[in-house]
Amino acid sequence: MAGETETVYRKILLVVREIPLGRVATYGQIAWIAGAASPRMAGYALGGLPADTDVPWQRVVNSKGGISPRGDPLATDRQRKILVEEGIRFQADGRIDLGRFGWDGPDPEWLEAHDFTLLPWRARS
């Protein structure tokens, strides 16, 4: 089981690395693309990253376009600050307009080149 989790975490991080500057994705979207069991698993994978990571973890938000609270209370402010510096704008309610700033996901060619199973499209959260 640990090996399966490690493989899914690796896929999650590969997908997150593809989110371009100025765009965000949801935990559910990342989980679906990576074949993870749940959005929470994507959160665990990102939560375990070291502080000096080059994985753009800040570009992953919840299904409502909000920043999900973490164990570190300063992390929410830090994530928001980084996203604003990357050109992401927050609405008055503190959420990101996913229609404007949401990422469509990696190209099918990228998925195939990285051995992801191409699943039929379904609603992503």
UniProtKB/TrEMBL annotation:
<protein>
    <submittedName>
        <fullName>Cysteine methyltransferase</fullName>
    </submittedName>
</protein>
<dbReference type="GO" id="GO:0006281">
    <property type="term" value="P:DNA repair"/>
</dbReference>
<keyword id="KW-0227">DNA damage</keyword>
<keyword id="KW-0489">Methyltransferase</keyword>
<dbReference type="GO" id="GO:0008168">
    <property type="term" value="F:methyltransferase activity"/>
</dbReference>
<dbReference type="InterPro" id="IPR052520">
    <property type="entry name" value="ATL_DNA_repair"/>
</dbReference>
<dbReference type="InterPro" id="IPR036388">
    <property type="entry name" value="WH-like_DNA-bd_sf"/>
</dbReference>
<dbReference type="InterPro" id="IPR014048">
    <property type="entry name" value="MethylDNA_cys_MeTrfase_DNA-bd"/>
</dbReference>
<dbReference type="GO" id="GO:0032259">
    <property type="term" value="P:methylation"/>
</dbReference>
<feature type="domain" description="Methylated-DNA-[protein]-cysteine S-methyltransferase DNA binding">
    <location>
        <begin position="9"/>
        <end position="88"/>
    </location>
</feature>
<dbReference type="InterPro" id="IPR036217">
    <property type="entry name" value="MethylDNA_cys_MeTrfase_DNAb"/>
</dbReference>
<keyword id="KW-0808">Transferase</keyword>
<dbReference type="Pfam" id="PF01035">
    <property type="entry name" value="DNA_binding_1"/>
</dbReference>
